[in-house]
């Protein structure tokens, strides 16, 4: 009966760990190819010891100019940013860098699928939300509006993803919904 | 009359430099969003000096598990590997890592556009060649066949890209041809 006690509770694991595990699963199952981009590093000094690997001795972290993850899923270019917040009531927009918003806008212009995965860590709830929706809040903030997106907005307007065993965080289900919605929008525009 | 002497000759510049410049141009002109992936680094030791930026004091280069470049172009997922050779007669397949081939095969399976940009440095000639074509040579090599792709094959079967001023290496023109060819193939398959 020990099996019944297995819990998929996720306390302590970071959103990034969960997404990386999920992406490995997607890759192995041939469902999608999505990778975390390495953090860009400015390398200043490298030693080349005889008979062993080069050692970086001085380097600095650079600010990423794009998003955390990108790749391809069934012909679609996928590009997203993962964000965690401890807040129980809202997602603070200051977590998003202006250059990330710019990058995501360009992705949209190239007809990629651009979204955020937002984890409310304390509440253990995860949501997928389209870039376009976050952009509305972001522009509104720049015009003096509120500096965060209410949790209640996520509950009613975003797509919730539930934690599981394999994959840990099956966000492609949400991406399917985004793609289906987009197809509807595009055909309505005609 | 000095202007007439301006040459777009590319001696000395690396293929990577040319592609990075080209990608900046594409980004600024809103033609495509394609980035070089940072080389993955294994960080072992970081110092956090008071009042200044974190300094990486020990780190190692890791072997990239994918390709050099990826991004999105007009709804298409683009994924490619850039390779240079000094040879005047053929492109040696040992330049390609098995994990790169695996990655590109997966990209194809997800309906992305996967290709190589090959520069014959000594000849100052550049070619775009679909992953699928390289795969034929690669598989043939694994079965005991020749270990390189003849330059004459590139001349007749690949798409040549010529160096220019802005952009340096307009490979999207070649990608347009690849996409058009694929569309023809797919409709013939039906
Ligand atoms: Mg993030
Ligand atoms: Mg390369």
UniProtKB/TrEMBL annotation, chains A, B:
Binds 1 Mg(2+) ion per subunit. It is found in: Cytoplasm. NCBIfam families: PRK02234.1-2, PRK02234.1-5, recU. This is Holliday junction resolvase RecU. InterPro entries: Resolv_RecU, Restrct_endonuc-II-like, tRNA_endonuc-like_dom_sf. Its main location: cytoplasm. It comes from the Bacteria. Coiled coil: none annotated. It comes from Solibacillus palustris. Mg(2+) binds at residues 66, 68, 81, 100. Endonuclease that resolves Holliday junction intermediates in genetic recombination. Cleaves mobile four-strand junctions by introducing symmetrical nicks in paired strands. Promotes annealing of linear ssDNA with homologous dsDNA. Required for DNA repair, homologous recombination and chromosome segregation. Its cofactor is Mg(2+). Belongs to the RecU family. The record marks 83 as: Transition state stabilizer. Keywords: Cytoplasm, DNA damage, DNA recombination, DNA repair, Endonuclease, Hydrolase, Magnesium, Metal-binding, Nuclease. It catalyses: Endonucleolytic cleavage at a junction such as a reciprocal single-stranded crossover between two homologous DNA duplexes (Holliday junction). It is an enzyme of class 3 (hydrolase). The keyword Chaperone does not apply. GO terms for molecular function: hydrolase activity. Its EC number is 3.1.21.10.
